[in-house]
Amino acid sequence: MTSPVASVFMTMQSELSGRNEFHVFITNEHRQSMLRGIFEGFYCEIQRTKVVFDTSRVWNTKLPVLTKLFPQAKVVSCVRDMAWVVDSVERLIRANALEPSKTFNFEAGGTVYSRCDALTGPGGMVGYAYNATREAFYGEHADRLIVVTYESLARRPAQTMQAIYDFIGEPHFDHDFDHVEYDADEFDSRLGTPGLHRVASKVAYVERSTILPIDIFDRYKGTSFWMDASLNRQQVRVI
């Protein structure tokens, strides 16, 4: 989910650039103070005593500026084989067959092929996140990144969460992985995609067959670059 902070952050960063006719009066010190203020203002009630997890796929593209604003900031990047991500979205679209989704501009006449192309294109929900993860994974601030695979989180949630706590330097919390329900029903309904962010009660790995045409499913073979140790030049921790 794109967070309010990420949305405002992107807008502010753009407005503080040369597109603003008054940018000649704006110094980098101004930019740094104003961008940091977005976080401090939004999280003012909790950030003094708690760690903030702000969820947005955009942060993988913003590590250079985040390291300037918050030198201790780290990114937990959750990944899954792209074919199965696309499969999950397609299942959700079919489950809500009566209502077109904003994910595809409320277009009612698309096919599974056009939807997959839209999802995985450079500006698509999946394609953008995938490219953003690659940017962080291969970038100069990759030491701020930990990659958490869906399989590890679903199959070994306790060990995976312990590794995350170790990475961010926080004490371990004893989670109840049988009761972790979450939803954003109002938000999802506005997108025309009910259930998009809904999380089931029990953390578990469920085997299933794909509903995608086999040529689409095969299109994404070899895209899980984080699983290839020879490509991990920055020694990013992958769980």
In short:
By secondary structure, the protein is mostly helical.
Describe it:
This protein is mostly helical and 239 residues long. The protein has 2 domains: 1-55, no CATH class; 72-238, 3-Layer(aba) Sandwich (Rossmann fold). It has helices spanning 4-15, 28-42, 63-69, 82-95, 112-120, 125-138, 150-155, 157-168, 185-190, 214-219, and strands spanning 75-79, 145-149, 237-238. Strands 1-2-3 form a 3-stranded parallel beta sheet, with helices on both faces. Helix 1 (4-15) runs antiparallel to helix 2. The longest helix is centred in the N-terminal third of the chain and has 15 residues, at 28-42.
Features:
mainly alpha, Rossmann fold
SSE topology sketch:
Elements: H1 4-15, H2 28-42, H3 63-69, E1 75-79, H4 82-95, H5 112-120, H6 125-138, E2 145-149, H7 150-155, H8 157-168, H9 185-190, H10 214-219, E3 237-238
Parallel strand pairs: 1-2, 2-3
Helix pairs in contact: 1-2
From the alpha carbons, calculate the radius of gyration and give it in angstroms.
Answer: 19 Å
Q: Please report which band the strand proportion falls in: under 5%, 5-15%, 15-25%, 25-35%, 35-45% or over 45%.
A: 5-15%
Main beta sheet strand tally, sense and closure: 3 strands, parallel
- How many DSSP helices? 10
Helix/strand order: HHHEHHHEHHHHE
Which outline best applies?
A: globular
Strand order of the largest sheet: 1-2-3
Measured distance between first and last alpha carbons? 22 Å
The CATH architecture name of the largest domain reads: 3-Layer(aba) Sandwich
CATH class of the largest domain: Alpha Beta
Q: How many domains, in number, for the residues?
A: 2
Count of distinct strands: 3
From the 3D structure, determine the CATH topology of the largest domain.
Rossmann fold
From the helix content, strand content and strand pairing, which structural class follows? mainly alpha
Pick out the low-confidence regions: none
